[in-house]
Amino acid sequence: MPQFWWVNHKQTARQEIGGQYLWSPKTKSNGAPSEFYDNMRRAQPGDLVLSYADQLIRYVGRAADFAFTATKPAEFGDTGRNWNREGWYLPVFWTPLEPPVRPKDFIAVLGPLLPTRYSPIHPVTGSGFQSVYLAGIPEAVFELVVSKAALNRQALAHGGANSLTFEAVTERLDDVVERRIEADLQLEDTVKKSIILARRGQGRFRANVEAIERSCRLTGITNPSLLTASHIKPWRICSSAEERLDGMNGLMLTPDADLLFDRGFISLKDDGEVLVSPRVDRQDLRRLGFEQLAWERFGFAEAPAIWRTDVFAPPQYGYLDYHRKEVFVS
Amino acid sequence: MPQFWWVNHKQTARQEIGGQYLWSPKTKSNGAPSEFYDNMRRAQPGDLVLSYADQLIRYVGRAADFAFTATKPAEFGDTGRNWNREGWYLPVFWTPLEPPVRPKDFIAVLGPLLPTRYSPIHPVTGSGFQSVYLAGIPEAVFELVVSKAALNRQALAHGGANSLTFEAVTERLDDVVERRIEADLQLEDTVKKSIILARRGQGRFRANVEAIERSCRLTGITNPSLLTASHIKPWRICSSAEERLDGMNGLMLTPDADLLFDRGFISLKDDGEVLVSPRVDRQDLRRLGFEQLAWERFGFAEAPAIWRTDVFAPPQYGYLDYHRKEVFVS
Which end of chain A, N or C, is surrounded by fewer C-beta atoms within 10 Å? Predict the structure, then answer.
């Protein structure tokens, strides 16, 4: 069952719609939690979103994936200067509502359907609340709005499928970071080269990780040609060359494990316990070979509650903490 | 146990040593098989190679991986104009032998140790044979040659470990192809973009494959966010935009399956039977979750001899045939 959302864009509607996403900080500028930013993480693939800006709903979107951590989009320019550097990036396939719908025009009908807490617009005047970003709405609000115009539901359901996968989206975000690194006049060429190789787990970064982690923590595989050097704190988020090349910020993983870990479907505690996201499909995990392994390792007939790998070293804790808090899909 | 080899470089010694590889055509210019080119495929990770050019052995190498299919290196320029476009690429870590060793100087001792068939040099005069490329030699020949000079065996054993993995090497080769595509004045920009996205299984190529292959043939996974669109005939080898974008030239695979298939450790017959390379480690395969799956699917206590997926469609046969002949490590 999809959930329904309403986003009040600030000055970045054009960038977010054009780029097929929503982006928000994770907390208010003062560090306090925000219901509306937290909603970014609550959104799930298939959820539907109304895009509201300048008193009009011009687009309807479908979340293509869960939100993940990404730095503020460069195309925001000065607009987002007060926002934190890191935020939630939610890939959304947007399709136009024609003509745009003006909620004020039917607020008498719409108002009573709006939630009493965290409503995105005033239930009587129909004016948008500046303080709201992503707000949950009942399905009836969504259906009433789209009934006022033409929406191509076929396009909404199937559009953007393969350009908005996690893999495709992170690849594009990584490309942006790579171009920025290439243009950085402060960095020596050899460092630049190492950082760029590190993006794909190669070169100096891999050598640094191999010195610390000898085998894949999830499969036990030691054959280097089957292992990838994966960043714990993602490459695109790291704030310095040191973080991008630090062997303590890496794990040697098989390709499946690398995907699950990057995607935030699994994480690890400092004592080596494996965390599995409640959002990952158990059948998929079994097919990828992970539950069998767990069963086999522990000799249980049922999947065990705890699946533990070797204890980590203290210099790895900070990166693991980041992964659990910002990458893991809890 | 490593095998021992001797390569007679032609005019491409500099390129092959500098680039850390050996490259040969797969057959003679007339299409006939060649013992020396076939040896490229017989070489295994860890094998040791003497590099002979201009009557001197200047380098000793260690094969970093099995050979795989790659187009003729661009840096050969005109030298290789009579060779086929496709050949065997063997990643080799080269380290110098100081001073260089001249086999003629001790041919009286060396000659009797040389093989009677396919010897790389004349056993009496010590002159190199033009017709030879990669020749097998007994360990005694190798040891005698290296005893004449200083060899850093530590460097030989451990050098190049992470820059010569299959992943790192193919990434560099793909980069060269990508730059060539970007510079191609004959291609429209939209086509270029699709071809470049296809390298990582994205964009139009992925959509084309998804229309034909719905799930991973090895795991049964259908969740698109866990699947990669993988080329059957590798992207870097394809000779046209059509081949690079053809949905018939693709499979939807999980990341582990993608690596095993790309690496040539598994292949597929037209009727869907899965072929497993005798060179892949069974324990690794089990840890990656593949043998368990086979057992489970067939309900056998032992791994079954035949593991079959759905039958392929005729337009896929040509690509599969290519994969079995040129990619599969048989």
Answer: N
The structure tokens listed for B242 are 């059509």
Let me know: does A64 contact A91? Beta carbons within 8 Å. yes
Q: Based on the number of CB atoms within 10 Å of its own CB, is B33 exposed (0-12), middle (13-18) or buried (19 or more)?
A: exposed
Q: Which residues contact B55 (CB under 8 A, 6 or more apart)?
A: B102, B103, B104, B127, B128
Helix and strand totals (H; E) in chain B: 13, 11
The band of A292, judged by pLDDT with boundaries at 50, 70 and 90, is low
Residues in chain A within 8 Å Cβ distance of B252: none
Instruction: Say how far apart CA B208 and CA B211 lie, in whole Å.
Output: 5
User: Helices in A70-115 by DSSP H: which ranges?
Assistant: 107-110
Residues above pLDDT 70, as percent of chain A: 95
Separation of alpha carbons A162 and B109, rounded Å: 65
Give me the interface pTM, i.e. the ipTM.
Answer: 0.87
Chain B residues near any Cβ of chain A (below 8 Å) = 45, 65, 161-163, 165-168, 171, 200-203, 206-207, 210, 219-221, 223-226, 228, 254-256, 258-259, 263, 281, 284, 287-290, 292-293
Within 8 A of B254 by CB-CB distance, chain A residues are 255-256, 287-288
Adjacent-strand bridge partners of A228? A253
Provide the strand spans (E) within chain B. Answer: 4-8, 21-25, 48-53, 56-63, 68-71, 86-101, 134-136, 228-231, 250-253, 266-268, 274-276
Burial class (CB in 10 A: 0-12, 13-18, 19+), A44: middle
Scan for tokens 């005798």, then name that residue: B278
Q: CA triplet A182, A187, A192: central angle to 5 degrees? A: 50
User: Tens digit of pLDDT per residue, chain B (330 long)?
Assistant: 899 999 999 889 999 999 999 999 999 989 999 999 999 999 999 999 999 999 999 999 999 999 999 999 988 988 777 777 899 999 999 999 999 999 999 999 999 999 999 999 999 999 999 999 999 999 999 999 999 999 999 999 988 888 888 889 999 999 999 999 999 999 999 999 999 999 999 999 999 999 999 999 998 999 988 999 999 999 999 999 999 999 999 999 999 999 999 999 999 999 999 998 888 888 888 888 886 544 544 444 455 556 788 999 999 999 999 999 999 988
SS3 B327: helix
Cα–Cα distance list, A149 to A63, A103, A107 (Å): 21, 12, 16
**Is the Cα torsion angle B190, B192, B196, B198 positive or negative in sign?**
positive
